[in-house]
UniProtKB/TrEMBL annotation:
Assigned GO CC terms: chloride channel complex
Membrane topology annotation: Multi-pass membrane protein
Gene Ontology MF term list: chloride channel activity
Record-given protein name: Chloride channel protein
Thylakoid as UniProt keyword: no
Membrane-spanning segments: 20-48, 68-89, 160-184, 234-255, 267-285, 305-328, 340-358, 364-391, 398-418
Length: 432
């Protein structure tokens, strides 16, 4: 009797299996980042309400209502807490794995990332002059890397997933889904493959849905309706380059301050001293406290005041720049995204107020918006991210898109020229 022929083997499709695994990892990354962002928001707001009695209204209103001695005392306590926590964290290992290195495959221990992030959130809630966005990015990236390793992702897919986790963490904590995706692609992956784009958009969208829900929250900054004009466009072309160069210089100053900050027992006195000094500065400039939202909003408000706002804009700009750099140099860790928005807004307010006296055309708030966007983009080396971030922060910008793009182009060219001259190459010349 002839045996039956063997059944044909079904073809194996490893690419399909990898794609399904990658899709599951993308969805899980969005959920993880959304939960991380939600936790950061609640911890930050709870601590701020407890310490500053900010149960309603803004941090700036709570700080202004507090007596001068409380501002100094709270900042001194924040410095002491940060100094103790970071000293213990760096006791056996002084290295901090940034998100960029985690994206490239380096391990970022979850417990260490959580400790580092909670310290950042704590000092920001108490008024430290740094941004809060690094904490959710680090934790989401660390957890995404752990999850990707458990799922057995390929090195290429793991890299994409970790970057998406970081971008989605940023998106979740500020409820800015498009900015999170653009940040992932322009800064972390520096690429636009279909696989990366789909994952970045999906992860950021899911993360914001988890952290915020369907309803869009109030804008991070309150801005009046913005309108374009020839005056604004000419200003954008001229001052876009100036503000872009200053953004590039700020990036260098932050890098220098970050590289020189202590990571040992010196933190026990450098942070309390620096934070106490920032608290003393807040007696005269209350908006200097916090991650930069108050300072930027003060600049938009100064724009409404017309010429009378010049002195306010200059004072807040100088105070925020000094407070942020001193805080980082003393040993604090945190973001500079919202501080950069505040500084760019100040430069836009100063130049816009002066320009509008000679050539009126658009509301000064339009200059503030563009200044914030181009300074942020130049300080991050990511012009698209800077423009999209400020547009989502304010829920404005469509009406002045052409002047904003002109300013962004001018700022990007000025930043590139500054980098070329700094590296010893003239414009248009290749590497030596």
């Amino acid at each position: 009797m002839t045996p039956p022929p063997p059944e044909p083997r079904r073809p194996h499709h490893p690419a399909l299996a990898d794609t399904i695994r990658f899709a599951c990892a993308t969805a899980l990354t969005g959920i993880i980042a959304g939960l991380v962002g939600l936790a950061c928001i609640h911890i930050l707001h709870s601590l701020t309400a407890l310490v500053w009695d900010a149960h309603s209204g803004t941090l700036l209103e709570a700080v202004e209502a507090a007596p001068w001695w409380k501002r100094v005392a709270v900042l001194a306590a924040s410095g002491a807490i940060g100094g103790i926590s970071w000293t213990l964290l760096f006791r056996s290992n002084k290295d901090v794995v940034p998100v960029a290195r985690c994206v490239q495959g380096e391990s970022m221990p979850v417990v260490r990332a959580l400790w580092h992030a909670l310290t950042q959130i704590g000092v920001v809630a108490l008024g430290a002059s740094v941004g809060r966005e690094v904490a959710p990015r680090e934790v989401a990236a660390s957890l995404s890397a752990w999850m990707g390793d458990r799922l057995g992702l390929s090195p290429r897919d793991r890299r994409i997933i970790v970057a998406c986790g970081a971008g989605a963490g940023l998106a979740a904590v500020y409820s800015i889904p498009l900015s999170g995706a653009v940040y992932t692609l322009e800064i972390l992956l520096v690429g636009m493959s279909a696989r990366a784009c789909a994952a970045a958009l999906a992860a950021s969208g899911i993360a914001v849905l988890v952290s915020t829900g369907w309803a869009r929250p109030e804008p991070f900054y309150t801005v009046p309706d913005l309108s374009p004009s020839l005056s604004l466009t000419v200003w954008a072309a001229v001052f876009g380059a100036v503000i872009g160069w200053l953004g590039w210089a700020f990036k260098g100053a932050v890098a220098a301050a970050s590289g020189a900050r202590p990571r040992g027992a010196r933190l026990l006195w450098t942070l309390p001293v620096a934070f106490t000094a920032v608290g003393a500065l807040s007696v005269w400039v209350p908006s200097v406290l916090g991650n930069g939202q108050a300072s930027a909003q003060t600049q938009f408000d100064a724009a409404w005041a017309g010429g009378a706002g010049l002195a306010v804009a200059a004072l807040v700009l100088a105070a925020k720049a000094v407070a942020t750099l001193v805080t980082i140099r003393a040993g604090a860790w945190g973001g500079v995204l919202t501080p950069a928005v505040a500084l760019g807004a100040g430069l836009g307010a100063l130049s816009g107020l002066a320009w509008s006296q000679a050539w009126p055309g658009s509301p000064v708030a339009a200059h503030v918006f563009i200044g914030a966007a181009v300074f942020l983009g130049a300080s991050m080396g990511a012009p698209f991210t800077g423009l999209v971030l400020v547009a989502e922060f304010t829920q404005q910008g469509a009406g002045i898109l052409v002047p904003a793009i002109v300013a962004t182009a001018s700022a990007t060219a000025a930043s590139a020229l500054a980098r070329a001259l700094r590296s010893g190459r003239g414009p248009g010349r290749g590497p030596r």
